[in-house]
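Quality-control log, excerpt.
Job 1 of 2 completed; input and output follow.
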Amino acid sequence: MSMRIFYQIHRWVSLVCALFFLMLAVTGLPMLFRDQLRAWNTVNLPPASAPMPQAEIWNSLPEGFAAIEAYFPNKEVLAVTPNAADGTLHFSVQTRGVKSTARTHMRMGGEQIMYDVRTGNVFNRKDRIYRFTAVESMLHWAHLLHTQLGSAGMAGKHFLALMCILAVLSILSGLFLYGPMMKGIALGTLRRGSTRMRWSDWHKFVSVFALVFAVVLCVSGVMIAAYSAGVKHYHRDAHMAAMTALSDLPAAETALSPAEAYRTVHEAFPDKIIISMQVPQGTNKNYAFHAADPPTKPTNFVLDEMVFLPKSGDAAPLFVPAPAWMHITPLFLNLHIHNHDWIALKIAWAALLLLTIAMIVSGCVLLATRRFNTIHRGTARPVHRTNASVWRAPAAIAVLSMAGLLAPIEGGIGNAVGLAALGLPLIYFARLLRR
């Protein structure tokens, strides 16, 4: 395939996806610091406690239900999820008598009440007071635009996944153009011959540093969209399977309490952690638990699989496995979301996002100035050339970038390794910029 064909692919695919790729990069910046921004912006949020083992948090389930009943007697509990990061139970609730149920999953969506198992304090997250409502609105819309194109829902997720696929195609086609277009020029050289030459040099320069980061985020974004669609179907099918398998069981004399139901499932699956519990509602007479293998580090995403237990009856817990393909999704979700716990890693990610934005903007300027190529006269800027392979520096940067994204998933020393691996290319970029 000739260089001209790669150029046409790069040009037209970039033209289609550039605006949406830019939107994803821009909205990703505030989402990096969402937890820090919300903690600062919320004036009445209770102080966070220290981390706590999940099993100890679950032991406080009876006290948590009693606190909800005492402080919020008009609320009924839909689900319970522990947060090991601060020793709290999150109760998903709704007003008694309401027929429609707000969409909620784990600690997201709907009305959530936090119960601190150490102090016994309760806090309804709907009662949060913000310093600046505009900051919360910005974070809310950044999340919606980044994940589902505003209010487009699942259709928006699928569309953004398609844009991510096109972005990867755009980047990879540009990779084929890099070698022939460098012509022995050293990385970081910014020539002054014409407007397009200058923007072309900028585009190649920042793309070398943003390439792997952008590709990993796009590929993982596609897998997140696939997981989002897949888990919705899996949960629906699992509930139907449980209703079929457990519908004809004889009733027991007494109904299981939430604490007894948790204990039964925990004893049946001692090697798994229980990350959420749905309480039977209406015609649904089964507890639904989300169980998973313990994560490498507490903040990592893990694939939850469903376990059902009748509220009344002597049946053993029913485990419904997730589809085999879904077991690869935690890697991609952790690459995209859970590998920058340190604030220093967030800052490194922010720098790489800015380079990604610069890559997109410089590419758009190149497309826009095809017919307006101003020649710059005057003192020429020296052109730095190299006898080394033009691929040597990009290859090293690519390896370091990949290591910087993978290592923090392991936690501990992996965070330091990841920070060093991402930091070295950024330092090299700053050094070349000053040249």
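Job 2 of 2 completed; input and output follow.
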Amino acid sequence: MNPELDKLHPYPFEKLAQLKSGVTPPAHLEHIALSIGEPKHTAPEFVLDVIRDALPTLASYPLTRGSVALREAIAGWLNIRFALPDNSLDVEQHLLPVNGTREALFAFAQAVVDRTRDPLVLMPNPFYQIYEGAALLAGAEPGYLNCEADNGFIPDFEAVSEQTWARCQLLYLCSPGNPTGAVLDQATLIKLMELSEQHDFVIAADECYSEIYLDETQAPVGLLQAAAAAGNDQFKRCVVFHSLSKRSNLPGLRAGFVAGDAAIIDKFHRYRTYHGCAMPPHHQLASVAAWSDEQHVRENRELYRRKFDAVLTILQPVMTVSRPEAGFYLWPQTPIEDTDFARRLYAEQNVSVLPGQYLSRNSRQTNPGHNRIRMALVADIEECVEAAGRIKNLIDAL
């Protein structure tokens, strides 16, 4: 067996199940899950119609590169959403459809990392655990960049040593952040591109929450957008990852894409050809429809705004919690140990949240998730309000 498998940490939800083991929550309270970031809003009906109508396409093998129509729809969306220069994206070179960002983010490290050169893969801390697992199984050491409140939950990139940058082969970014909702600004992204040029590492920007933002006039900036603004019109060393899971409430479709540096995309395509991960043809047609429509995305954002307004009205008087810039998570401080808080919340109020320390690692003598919880406001507004009320009841009883 691959010895690197033994380095993998238990997944956060495995830890949560162990934490809740042996606990019997109140039977009169229906369970409310705020622990998993699985969108629960209604999927767009017009996309489902496309899937139903496209079932006969299953008679043909799909291409790893996907259809030209899909790549053109993706390029069109990227051009408009991130104000890219005309013709900066070549659908034959800069784009590749993937079966959700999770598998692509993992596979990317396997294709990019050179394990013969003592590789380091940097990532935010807390983080999406796929980054860490991808680094370990690629034969690299994960490096954790703490995201603390005093820096707006953005890693302090200025504090990273020259020696660390020199060893780095891959930098994972997550903007908007999971679980903090923090957004990297354009100046920071440009500075990171300058560092990647100087030290020859690749930037993998996980932007799957980019379409859930709370101020309709302040859409999060993207890495390709920053590259174009800096004159990096070939997107050198830059690759972005996008998905329909959060944007369009289609987590089961497993549909997304990677885009960026043509040379990297070419190598990643070669890897994926062996990987055997072409997107099913009916998913491609559904994706074309989803990427081509913005009305359902605007309606989706409005639903999240209403939930944040309602939940924060209840929670802000009793705990330290702020409105994020984007995403659908809250990242509040807990008045007691985060694992104790999560266990008691389940035991006394039948609400599940994820302890923050399960999403982080000890780094620089601290765990930035300690005494925080991640709350995913994915259920309908009534359930979210009910859950917030139960959390307040627990805090009042402490």
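Post-run check on job 2. The chain has a mean pLDDT of 94.
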